[in-house]
Amino acid sequence: MAGLELLSDQGYRVDGRRARELRKIQARMGVFAQADGSAYIEQGNTKALAVVYGVPRGIGGVRSRALPDRALVNCQYSSATFSTGERKRRPHGDRKSCEMGLQLRQTFEAAILTQLHPRSQIDIYVQVLQADGGTYAACVNAATLAVLDAGIPMRDFVCACSAGFVEGTALADLSHVEEAAGGPQLALALLPASGQIALLEMDARLHEDHLEQVLEAAAQAARDVHTLLDHVVRQHVREASILLGD
Amino acid sequence: MASVVLSEAEKVYIVHGVQEDLRVDGRSCEDYRSVEVETDVVSNTSGSARVKLGHTDILVGVKAEMGTPKLEKPNEGYLEFFVDCSANATPEFEGRGGDDLGTEIANTLYRIFNNKSSVDLKSLCISPREHCWILYVDVLLLECGGNLFDAISIAVKAALFNTRIPRVRVLEDEEGSKDIELSDDPYDCIRLSVENVPCIVTLCKIGYRHVVDATLQEEACSLASLLVSVTSKGVVTCMRKVGKGSLDPESIFEMMETSKRVGKVLHTSLQSILHKEESLGPKRQKVGFLG
User: Fold this and answer.
1) Chain B residues within 8 A of A97 when measuring between CB atoms
2) Do A44 and A32 contact (CB within 8 A), yes or no?
3) What is d(CA A190, CA A158) in angstroms, rounded to the nearest whole number?
4) What would the CATH number be for the domain defined by B8-279?
5) Is residue A105 part of a domain?
6) For residue A82, what are the domain limits?
7) Locate the Exoribonuclease phosphorolytic domain: which residues (chain B) (predicted)?
8) What is the mean pLDDT of each run of 10 residues along chain A (246 residues)?
9) In which order are the strands placed within the sheet that holds B209-212?
10) Closest chain A C-alpha to B160 CA, distance in angstroms
11) CA closest to B291 among chain A residues
């Protein structure tokens, strides 16, 4: 049986996108009232919620793992049991969730100005409601908005996007079908203003000569995501200031 | 569970208000907060619903999977409940912190569905003793603003209403071997009747009176509450006392009467809103978490 044709001769992908085209992104900040910061993002059919609990927590008490010189960033990734095609047995605590938690932590330690809040803890909880490829990217983008919503100082936005490589062409923002087909996958988290990379991960093998092309596709997609997120933040601030009567 | 800290004066204020039938948010003792219900929010499930009751936010997904019927009930399918108290609701639920509450809620759900009239389980059977549909009802607790049980039961009912199970046929050839054939038409599916699915009405005893749909603050003032699961006809299918305080028998009967009265109204309005939403058809603009 021939494999699925991921890129047609006319240059269209399975879902009708061009190679470097992103899926539709919709986001909202301040979804929940009780959390310090929260955000929701939809990237195509991938849906993620992020919640941030704030800075003065974790001083004393049992959960305290406070660091003397900077804030501790704590991340938990979980994905709803109904989020995937086949039902998952556990929402979190499995190997993939733990790994994802660690990656998120690494990403946000690079972005949050942790030295401004010594001896405190920042909890970032991400929940995937529906998984259709690019869950890491959706989680990072949602968490960025949630951290911004909580008002925690960051060096820059963190914008993430995935990229793949099919038949000599780099594809941005892989869907579940494209991820499942195998082939190289690259996850990139970018600090767009400086162009610094907060997290880079690639699996499967890819010729060194092609790496630059894939990396560039992912970086460009991340910059596009930044434009969209920036718009969401500005919109949110505008609405909030109208409500406050300024 | 997410807890609030109230001073003695605040408690007195709430308790006195309840005695005068005027609660902090202006409701009377038998009023619910406004409930927001939306179905079909997660597209890769058989059925889903999101319910927002005040600050309580619940997402329920139902997935239908094929399995073998239980030995004691060879010609029935069954329901499995799982409640995930995610860390989104409160940092206390991080890691395994929410497991206790999750199990407690799941067990309550098993109990209120543990009777023949709630759901027609026979319709979930494909071929007796061999194949049946298992409905995995997964509840995700996203925010906790009091009255969890009622909100969850409303969300479960709405998700079951929204559930569509693909129709399958069992083909038998001459040698007696059976083959299961799935219908080609994605719209060819069976739906569950949720007419008799009960909803939980929680009554919180505050002072000498009881209130429905207590907020977190009101729950902090109450020592004991009674969970009553009521069907749309006002039939009580399950009852449970929760909380560390005690209740006297007379007030239990009073609370049951209240729950039947309130439950009937709750069911009627839920049914009407679910039908109204469905009549909007597939072109309905989905709101989800964006609105």
Assistant:
1) none
2) no
3) 6
4) 3.30.230.70
5) yes
6) 25-244
7) 32-166, 196-261
8) 75 90 94 92 94 67 68 91 89 89 93 89 93 94 95 93 91 92 90 92 88 94 96 94 84
9) B209-212, B199-206, B224-230, B236-242
10) 14
11) A28
